[in-house]
């Protein structure tokens, strides 16, 4: 017994069918148009077939009646001695065979579709209700029709017409032309839909660029009115965002630059105040922390670097960045192979690596050694800074890539503006690389700068 169709089953069926549907607007619209065109062609063919069946059945019936009447007339008027010769000529020249009929004849009936019913009714109207039809008489296949030499005569005969008389003329030609028309219509539908899909894909690509902090190219405000309106609104939005970002960067840079001068005077005053050395050291450390935060604001306010990529010796760059920390007494273990050249920008990469080292020292402490490594990774190169600090929970990794965010629960020291990783993320994005934040075996964090060894294609 079939199970009842419930709302849950309908929804499950809908989800199953949705999984097989194309995801893009282009192919969804094309599929819908293709289904509509196919249904329209099918409906047109059925309408044509319905109205074409009756006249064709009449034509076929008239042909059958004419053949039977001519055959009957020829048999009646022919000499008895020449009837056999006449039957041979009919079979040879016209493919018409005549046999005596018996009530016990084994026959296979014609089909019972509408055209056959119309044809048989028309033939019986002319030849009489006693007329029989068959597709097979004994072992002979063909189009068989029974007739009588005289309406009052009880003897019947079978006349066999060639079976091609029942075939629809030009059926394959009609099918070929219908398929060609459908193909042309589908091609036109694809071209029409692609005119909508192409600008939408360009808008989606430009929106992703805005989401990643880049300035997209101006979108063409042409094509259909609706698409042009969306492109115009997007261009206006992108322009407003670019101006807002530029104003924000200018404000950050200006405020940060103006704060550094009074900080320098404040540090000088603290050092010359004559206060106890412990208090002076603590106040100077706070001033240095404030100066470092202001430096991060300046770095963040600069935006994406604009200078071109150059081939850089990454091992040499890492050694130059780490050397001041070693001179300061920080224990750093360097693991570097022979020089590795990669396309990059020196100052942003130095800034990114210094931010990672500062974060590691701030949260792991300067009494624990850092491990800094440079190694090849697939088709690129990686710079890794590994510490023994508290690490970052996997659920919070993506959140910490955003500016002004800190993980206070996992990190004991909450100093800083929360811009360090955001600056590193921006630098890596401008190099078509990425920043990986992974847990370290035995505890700690592995911060890895992944860079390509080959520059990206222009226009990416």
How would you describe this structure to a colleague?
With 460 residues, this protein is an alpha+beta fold. Helix 2 runs antiparallel to helix 5. The strands form three sheets. It has a five-stranded antiparallel beta sheet. Strands 7-9-10-12-11 form a five-stranded mixed beta sheet. Strand 3 (133-137) and strand 4 form a beta hairpin. It has three domains: 25-171, Sensor histidine kinase RisS, periplasmic domain (Beta-Lactamase, 2-Layer Sandwich), CATH 3.30.450.300; 221-303, Helix Hairpins (Orthogonal Bundle); 306-452, Histidine kinase-like ATPase, C-terminal domain (Heat Shock Protein 90). It is rod-shaped and about 150 Å long. It has helices spanning 7-20, 25-77, 83-94, 114-127, 171-211, 225-271, 277-301, 314-327, 346-364, 397-400, 420-430, and strands at 97-101, 107-108, 133-137, 140-147, 156-161, 310-313, 332-335, 341-344, 370-377, 380-386, 434-439, 445-452. The chain contains eleven helices and twelve strands. One of its GO terms (molecular function) is phosphorelay sensor kinase activity.
């Amino acid at each position: 017994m079939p199970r009842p169709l419930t709302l849950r089953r309908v929804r499950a069926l809908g989800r199953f069918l949705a999984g097989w549907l194309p995801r893009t607007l282009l192919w969804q619209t094309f599929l819908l148009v293709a289904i509509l065109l196919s249904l329209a062609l099918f409906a047109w063919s059925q309408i044509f077939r319905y109205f074409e069946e009756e006249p064709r059945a009449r034509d076929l019936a008239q042909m059958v009646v004419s053949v039977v009447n001519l055959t009957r007339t020829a048999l009646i008027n022919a000499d008895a001695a020449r009837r056999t010769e006449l039957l041979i000529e009919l079979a040879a020249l016209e493919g018409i065979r005549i046999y005596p009929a018996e009530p016990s004849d084994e026959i296979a009936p014609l089909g019972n579709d509408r055209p056959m019913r119309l044809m048989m009714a028309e033939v019986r109207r002319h030849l009489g209700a006693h007329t029989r039809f068959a597709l097979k008489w004994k072992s002979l296949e063909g189009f068989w029709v029974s007739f009588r030499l005289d309406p009052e005569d009880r003897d019947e005969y079978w006349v066999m017409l060639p079976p091609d008389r029942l075939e629809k003329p030009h059926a394959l030609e009609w099918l070929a032309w219908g398929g060609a028309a459908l193909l042309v219509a589908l091609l036109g539908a694809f071209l029409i839909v692609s005119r909508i899909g192409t600008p939408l894909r360009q808008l989606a690509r430009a929106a992703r660029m805005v989401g990643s902090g880049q300035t997209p190219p101006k979108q063409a405000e042409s094509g259909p009115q609706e698409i042009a309106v969306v492109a115009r609104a997007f261009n206006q939005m992108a322009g407003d965002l670019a101006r807002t970002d530029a104003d924000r960067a200018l404000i950050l840079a200006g405020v940060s630059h103006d704060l550094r001068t009074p900080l320098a005077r404040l540090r000088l005053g603290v050092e010359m105040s004559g206060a106890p050395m412990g208090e002076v050291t603590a106040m100077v450390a706070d001033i240095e922390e404030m100066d470092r935060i202001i430096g991060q604001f300046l770095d963040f306010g600069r935006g994406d670097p604009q200078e071109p990529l150059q081939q850089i010796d990454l091992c040499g760059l890492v050694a130059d960045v780490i050397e001041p920390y070693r001179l300061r007494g920080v224990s750093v273990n360097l693991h570097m192979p022979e020089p590795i050249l990669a396309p990059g920008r020196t100052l942003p990469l130095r800034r990114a690596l210094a931010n990672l080292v500062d974060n590691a020292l701030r949260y792991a402490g300067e009494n624990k050694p850092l491990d800094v490594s440079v190694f090849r990774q697939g088709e690129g190169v990686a710079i890794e800074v590994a510490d023994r600090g508290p690490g970052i929970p996997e659920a919070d990794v993506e959140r910490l890539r955003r500016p002004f965010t800190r993980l206070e629960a996992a990190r004991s020291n909450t100093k800083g503006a929360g811009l360090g990783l955001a600056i590193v993320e921006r630098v890596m994005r401008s190099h078509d690389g990425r920043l990986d934040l992974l847990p370290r075996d035995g505890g700690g964090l592995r911060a890895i700068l992944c860079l390509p060894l080959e520059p990206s294609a222009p226009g990416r």
